[in-house]
Amino acid sequence: MINVNFLVFDDFESLDLFGVVEIFGRLTNIYTLNYYSMKGGLVKSSQNAEMMTQPIAHLTNEDILIIPGGKGTRKLVKDSEWIKKLKHLSLSASNVLTICTGAALLAKTGLLNDKKATSNKRAFDWVKSVNKSVFWQEKARWVGSGKYYTSSGVSAGMDMALGFIADQHGRKTAEKIAFDIEYVWNDDPNNDLFIS
Amino acid sequence: MINVNFLVFDDFESLDLFGVVEIFGRLTNIYTLNYYSMKGGLVKSSQNAEMMTQPIAHLTNEDILIIPGGKGTRKLVKDSEWIKKLKHLSLSASNVLTICTGAALLAKTGLLNDKKATSNKRAFDWVKSVNKSVFWQEKARWVGSGKYYTSSGVSAGMDMALGFIADQHGRKTAEKIAFDIEYVWNDDPNNDLFIS
């Protein structure tokens, strides 16, 4: 089994997380889903939903790391200790996927330098300002750069997750998941309807 | 402020809930989001996510009630005490919205009798078997019948929630939310791409 480790923080955006959760959660024979935060315990989303998490000190595998976005990222990019730990986790992970402004957190670690990446088009200027050494792609639903995947805003995370599944397990597997959750997959990473 | 009361249970489907959460959560000047379960405390989704809830004994307002679907519904339709409480809550709510197999729970109360409703097309035969006095609509993304709204599977909940917002606050408000969360709204309730 491959671990999918979701790293959350106060004021994360609910759908950033749970859209991707839903898609990985459909492959119960391949993936185990785990929820972490820096210190563990209850973490509250921007939509007032509190979820239980394990502390990252308990995260010992090196599988897939997923980072949502949301208002909480504005504070975290300035938290050097948090960013340092994220860098450590990201270096050892087999893959790192970010949704929305989660890309700003990953960009802050420096690990996206000289790589293509994208983020929410509603917050794009701010995300770009966090690290100008990233090759930010304005017109992209999602971007895969080696082991790093970054998606556009909120619901784009679902499209990216299906794209990642297609890359790993074949397109038919991704299409079956989309069908089973009755989701119209925007399957072209270059077709971005939400640029300003 | 209008309360949006999400009623969850063990083995609910994550995206059934959080897709709709995301949409109501965008109108922070109109809606307050609350999470309930029968007894309160931690409730675990089918995707291994544990969330904190209040007991329904604390639910005293008569605003909007939202019921997700998921594997847990199979057990709950047989729990007459749970269904009785759901009926009580639904009668007093201003609106009741169900996602996916959440429609089976509402149907079991009898409140959908002689009304049009829909549900997940992957579980449609089972849902229909729960109550044959409902006018089940096979080809529908979602259905609004007076104060009751029912949606098709999982991600269809987002389309229904946007449709509900459009009915309540106008189409432009719904379109702005979809744009802000970079979601391609399937805005025609009669266009169902997922019938068998």
TrEMBL record, chains A, B:
Any idea where the DJ-1/PfpI domain is? 4-165
Question: Mind telling me which residue stretches traverse the membrane in this protein?
Answer: none
**By its UniProt entry, which Pfam families does this protein fall under?**
DJ-1_PfpI
Q: Which InterPro entries match?
A: Class_I_gatase-like, DJ-1/PfpI, INH-QAR
Q: Which PANTHER family match?
A: ARAC-FAMILY TRANSCRIPTIONAL REGULATOR, THIJ_PFPI FAMILY PROTEIN (AFU_ORTHOLOGUE AFUA_5G14240)
Q: What is this protein called?
A: DJ-1/PfpI domain-containing protein
**Whose protein is this, by species?**
Tetragenococcus halophilus subsp. halophilus
